[in-house]
Amino acid sequence: QNIFSNNYFWRTYDQKEVDLVEEREGRLFGFEFKWNPKKHKIQKEWLKTYANASFDVVNKDNFLEWLLWE
Asked: Where are the domains of the chain?
């Protein structure tokens, strides 16, 4: 499946970040990549700033599902 998107990263002045931001079909999709599924924080600033955007954490347990879905 081909998905065409503009790809970015997002970071605040105080160094909070989202590893991958995809812009496609008029929507934003944020992704955080962590090896350990327990060591992640949903970036509240991201959700507050982009209320209509999605945010997902990709880790060693779900990366294959994410990769095949993408």
From this structure: 6-69
